Amino acid sequence: MDSSLKIDVASLDPAHRQAMEDVLGLQLQTNQRLIIQVATLDLTEPQNEASNVMDLVTHFYDGVDANEVEEIDSLIKTRANLTRPLP
Fold first, then answer.
1. Is 63 left (phi over 0), alpha (psi -120 to 50) or beta?
2. Which end of the chain is more exposed for a tag (fewer CB within 10 A), N or C?
3. DSSP 3-state assignment of 39?
4. For 84, left (φ over 0), alpha (ψ -120 to 50), or beta?
5. For residue 60, which of 72, 49, 48, 50 has the smallest C-alpha distance?
């Protein structure tokens, strides 16, 4: 079940305001509103960030021909300003 809560910062007592500032890592202003949302995760799909990154990396060149791969590789090496020769 998803739910959300809206809280005007001006309505918070000092202790709760400080707690929220500690959680967020920033100072809240009285003209701001906190919107806290709770979402239910779909645990049937992998939530592993590493697998998502691997998916992205392994499919990066999908649909790209060899000449385009060489051009991309050349641009990457140029932008990295590498000073040593790479294979």
1. left
2. C
3. coil
4. beta
5. 72
- Which among 16, 51, 53 is positioned nearest to 36, based on CA atoms? 16
pLDDT at 17: 94
> What pLDDT score does 77 carry?
76
DSSP 15: H
Tally of helices (H runs) and strands (E runs) in the chain: 3, 2
Rounded distance between C-alpha atoms, residue 11 and residue 31, angstroms: 10
Domain ranges of the chain: 3-38, 49-80
Beta bridge partners of 5: 36
Give the separation between CA 64 and CA 83, rounded to whole angstroms: 27
Q: What is the pLDDT of residues 5-45, one digit of tens each?
A: 999 999 999 999 999 999 998 999 999 999 999 988 877 76
For the chain, the farthest-separated pair of C-alpha atoms sits apart, in whole angstroms, at 63
